[in-house]
Amino acid sequence: MLWLLRHDEMTLLGRGSVSREVHGLYFRWYVTLTQGGFPADDPRWQYPPGAGPVLLSPALLSPPLPPLTHVEYFDAFVALTLAADALVAIALVRAARRPGRRLHGAALWIAGLPLLLHIPLARYDVQTTALGVFALLALSRSTRACGAFAAAGALVKVWPALTLLGTPRGRTTREAWTAAAVSAGALLLVLALAFEHPFSFLRQQGARGVQIESLGGTALALARRAGWPGEVRYQFGAMEFTGPYVSAVAAVSLLLTAAAFGLLLLWRLRARRWTDATPYDAALCAVLLFTVTSRVISPQYMVWLLGLAAVCLTSRHTTQRPVAALLAAAAAVSALAYPVLYAQVTACTWTGCLVMLVRNGLLTAAAVLSFRRLWRSSRPPSPTPPHIG
């Protein structure tokens, strides 16, 4: 992955587009954050305030003055991402040492992450995933630590809050959710006092359209091949569709997300059987459902799913083994979609449409299978009929 990052200018690797996110965008945000405010006027700033400290963290590897140059910032950012990667691997290996646990999770993380080429090293999703992984793995030892990690992750990229969905009912849920609420409140207060415009991301997030790599984007790409007059345009930090019916597709995506939330709530209310793997399986299922129904499915989202699948595979009781296999395949296809064949995807050629159809088909199949297996595993066992004879 480091070798690929060093050769990022190659045509097959996106001609520098992967590393440019850190060199350009993250560094500009870093400069703004060092001045005491969030980049409120930048439409590409769509992240909760917890992302600020993550983007400022490369300064920890340099003297206090002067501020980092963009090259120094890039090197420090990658170093910290590698450190987070190593911490996740270590946590998964340590979890495998407990009774009834396996090393399969660590193997998936270590072997699966490079399927995304060098993208994980040039995004801060590894750091976010680390918080989600730590939250799940801490649950069996400290519910308060679980809630604190989940809260910290949620303030960086929202989705780690879903790691609390599968906590067993009763005291465990109360303690974990209370710890998360208290931690989130305290962190928000600190960030609001330290930076200006901490909630500016809400305005930008609500204005997003349909990204070309989303499920709705795949439908629009196929429609474009059939004569639909829409176009692909760079806006809000992503390539999105514009034109007739795009708003309708975005609305359908939001309705599907609401339906996914309803299904997860129904599962939570009707679940009667918990194993040590149920919180892990529920977290993966929830994030997968919300990812598939989202208007945006960026390639780095696969980092989240691989991390959660790795946690599931640490337990012998997980129901998500086939889901993890589908996600590994989807990660490999994602690397084809971006950066290898991204020009084909943005041009909506048949090749680009096929790649996205396969990737999103794998994700959709994984989401359906994940929920089905989670639902079945949480039902009470059928009573054994009496033996006659």
Could you describe the 3D structure shown?
This protein is mostly helical and 389 residues long. The protein has helices at 2-6, 17-34, 51-56, 70-96, 104-112, 125-138, 143-157, 171-194, 201-206, 215-225, 246-270, 278-292, 301-313, 321-340, 342-346, 350-377, and strands spanning 210-211, 231-235, 238-242. Strand 2 (231-235) and strand 3 (238-242) form a beta hairpin. The longest helix has 28 residues, at 350-377. The N and C termini lie far apart (64 Å). 48% of the residues are buried.
What is Rg? 21 Å
N-to-C order of helices and strands: HHHHHHHHHEHEEHHHHHH
Order of the strands making up the biggest sheet:
1-3-2
Q: What average pLDDT do the residues reach?
A: 93
The major sheet is characterized as:
3 strands, antiparallel
Q: Calculate the terminal CA-CA distance, rounded to whole Å.
A: 64 Å
Find the count of extended strands (DSSP E, 2+ residues).
3
Please work out how many helical segments DSSP would assign: 16
Structural class by secondary-structure content: mainly alpha
Q: Regions with pLDDT < 50 over 5+ consecutive residues?
A: none
Helicity range: 55-70%
Shape: globular
